Amino acid sequence: ILGGTLSAVVLAKRLVALGHKVHLIRNLNDPKRSISNLHVICEYQMATVIVQPNDAKDFKDEVQTWVEQGLAEHAINFRSCRMTAEGKMEEKALPSGCQRVRPLGGFFALIDALMQQLPEEVKVEEHQIQCVSKEGESWNLHGRDSRKYGPFSAVIFAFDALPRASRKASQKQLLEKALPISARVIESSAYAQMSSSMAVCLHFDPPLHVQFDTLVFEDHPILKFASRNAKDDQAHRGLQEKYDTWTVVATPEWSFRQRPDAGCVSDPKANKGWDKKRVGAAMVKAFGDALGQDLKRARQVVPTFHWEGCSYIAKVVRGPPCAFDASVGLGWCGDQFGGSGPAGAASSAIALSALVHRYNHGELVSSLPGKDEWGLRHACSADEDTLSITGPITGRQERQDGLDDTWKLAVSLAAGENVESADSYKKFRKNGPIGDNRPQGPWSGRPSSHLKLKCEKICDGLMKLTSFSREVQKLLLESAFPSGAAGVCGGLWDAKQQCIDMGQGEAWRGGCPRRVASTEMGLHGSHVLNWDSAGDKIYEVFE
Fold it and tell me: What letter would DSSP give residue 512?
């Protein structure tokens, strides 16, 4: 199973219960950015999950297990509101028979805990996989270290948009490298339409005081929803702010008018021609006007973001909500098939587990949903956050034929074209985390006036600089961490010497209570400088 997602956890447990052994690979190579380079919108999660009466029993049992194990709690104090077209704020009560559950620490912390609790028949591994191949009847995986893993009888990709614990770019490029064997699985995702919207993530100091945790706007000319990102529930999102932050998202219709010629949002050639500052300012003003508050103190955590996969607006409505090609033993599951959100992720994983079980017993039953099996995800009264965006508007200039034009390869295959090879991320690959154009050093250029630093390459994407003066060390710490923060960064832990090199000939020594992978370290790769508050010495270091 490729992808450290909620659907991957459910699938792994189901397969073990059916008598199979499973390898679950959490990390997949991203051609565009390092796995430690977190983005608060790309790594998105809702604060809670609403369990509805018509959800599958297996999903209800799964959520109940979270609560019983202390990994989640019933969110009885969570406040959901809607703003009517007349500007009136109304609290939304949960529909009859529904229950709201909040994962403690957030969904990514929950997935971490669930991974650790998987049965021993599931081997969870941290390799960064950059290629999959089939030799005879067996599949093999190829890592960034040129090692080969396998053989495996079947390979399953697991991607969820909500919570987004794996990057779709990683899975798409691996599927493309498996062409032409993977063609039918890729084609089956051609109608997995998603909607694009403008989004901002805001921090307020002093904090924003409102009587809700999530708000859906009805018929607002600009905004669709706003949700609180609780400070203590943001593991693995790169959010290290003093107070709660807020994700504010515009309607697809308004977003399209701001960037009408964008087409595929991820195309870098289309990133020109729209004003991020202007769009962000308009959204902040609209949010403040709706609340009746002056929000001039709002600070954007990241620049205004055109969020391509904000909400999956389609789902499989006929047949198993997953893709599986039994002729080759390749599949794909997740909420893009089962319907956006944890319930859809679970239903897709459950459906695929049955097909894999039959495959391993010689029954070649495929599920390759085409146009007739897909339909729009209909709105329901419990929808909030990204689920409140239901289509058919995608927020992009494209044909209204139900196809998801953000992946041209899938559309071409759905049109009957024969494609032997493809690389949708070729333009990114050379500059990506393992690309030929990545900085290697040493670098030449204008030297600083008096700074003499030692630089060591730890691995791709991680450099260690030492020999800073105490003054510069103090400035860096104050710029990167909130006041009062304490602790030790384990990213540079020397297991042989049992210490961390602090520079100046000094080392921090102490017991290392638990060795964890970099993906489990919530702060790793997220010590981000607030550049506006950096002093002259900091400028000198980085120049």
Answer: -
Dist. CA 521–CA 524, nearest whole Å: 5
Tell me: the pLDDT tens digits for 383-395? 999 999 998 999 9
- The values of phi and psi at residue 12, to 5°, are -60, -45
Give the per-residue SS3 of 97-160: CCEEEEECCCHHHHHHHHHHCCCCCEEEECCCEEEEEEECCEEEEEECCCCEEEEECCEEEECC
Give per-residue pLDDT as tens, 80-90. 999 998 999 99
Q: Which two tokens stand for residue 347?
A: 């239903």
Q: Which of 525, 491, 517 is nearest to 124 (CA)?
A: 517
Which token pair is 55?
A: 């959800």
Backbone dihedral region for residue 436 (phi beyond 0: left; psi -120 to 50: alpha; all else: beta): alpha
For 265, phi then psi, to 5°, come to -60, -30
Q: Are strands 493-494 and 499-503 parallel, antiparallel or unpaired?
A: antiparallel
| Residue 491 token pair | 């990213």
How far apart are the C-alpha atoms of 452 and 468, rounded to whole Å? 8
Cα separation, 100 vs 50, whole angstroms: 4
Backbone angles phi, psi at 353, to 5 degrees: -60, -40
Query: How many helices (DSSP H) and strands (DSSP E) are in the chain?
Result: 13, 26
Strand partners, 138: 135
Residues 6+ apart with CB under 8 A from 378: 390
238 touches 528 (CB < 8 A): yes
Q: What count of other Cβ atoms lies within 10 Å of the Cβ of residue 509?
A: 10
Of residues 9, 403, 41, the one with CA closest to residue 194? 403
Helix (H, G, I), strand (E, B), or coil: what is residue 227?
strand
Contact between 187 and 367 under an 8 Å Cβ cutoff? The reply is no
Rounded Cα distance, 56 and 6, in Å: 15
- Give the strand pairing for 80-83 and 214-217: parallel
Of the chain, the end-to-end C-alpha distance in Å amounts to: 43
Average pLDDT along the chain? 85
DSSP helix/strand/coil, 10 = helix
Q: What does DSSP say about strands 22-25 and 122-125: parallel, antiparallel, or unpaired?
A: parallel
The Cα angle at residue 237 between residues 232 and 241, in degrees rounded to 5: 50
Q: What percent of the chain has pLDDT over 90?
A: 62
**For residues 89 and 226, is the Cβ–Cβ distance under 8 A?**
no
